[in-house]
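re the bet — no i am not wrong, look at it urself. input seq straight from the record:
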Amino acid sequence: MGGPTIRVGVRVIAATNRDLEAATHEGRFRADLFYRLNVFPIRIPPLRERPEDVPLLVRYFVTKYARKLGRTIETVPERTLDCLVAYPWPGNIRELENVIERAVIVSRGPGLELGEWLPAPSVRPEARVPTLEELERDHILTVLRMTGWRVSGDRGAAVVLGLKPTTLEARMKKLGITRGA
C-alpha cells in the first residue's frame, strides 16, 4: 500500500455552460474547487452572439456529414445560409450540427436543403416589440430625467424634443407621465 510517491505535472481543462462564479456565491458550487479551476478562464460566447461563425460551421458540418453518409452536397444556397445565420440557436453548436446532419440526409440534390425544419428569419418568439406609444413614453421620460424634469425654457425637455411645451404637456398627460414616474 505504501509505495513511493510519483510526482506528475498535469493541467486540468474543465468546461461548463454554467456560471460557476455565481453558483459559488450562492453556495451551490465549492469555492475551493472554483478557485482551483479558475486559473485561466476562457469564455466562448454562444453561437447566437457570433453569427459570423455560422457559415464556416455549416460548411464544416456539411462536409463531415456528406462524407459520412456518402452524399454529394456541393452548394449551400444563399437563402439557406441566410436563414441559418438569422436563427438564434438556443441549442448552440450542437443544435446547428444536428440541423445540418438532418439537412444532408433529406437533401435530394447537390444543394443543401433544410426541408421544413427551420423557421423563416423573423422576430424571435421570446422577443416582444414595444408599441410606438411605449417607445414614445420611454423617450419622453428619458429626456425629462435628463433635463431635471424641466418641461419648458431654454434647457427644457420640449426644446430637446422639438415640441411646444403645451404639446409636450398634452403628450405627458395622454401617456400618464408624472414626475414620480
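see?? The two ends are 73 Å apart (CA to CA). told u. also Residues 47-106 form a domain with the Helicase, Ruva Protein; domain 3 fold (CATH 1.10.8.60). so pay up
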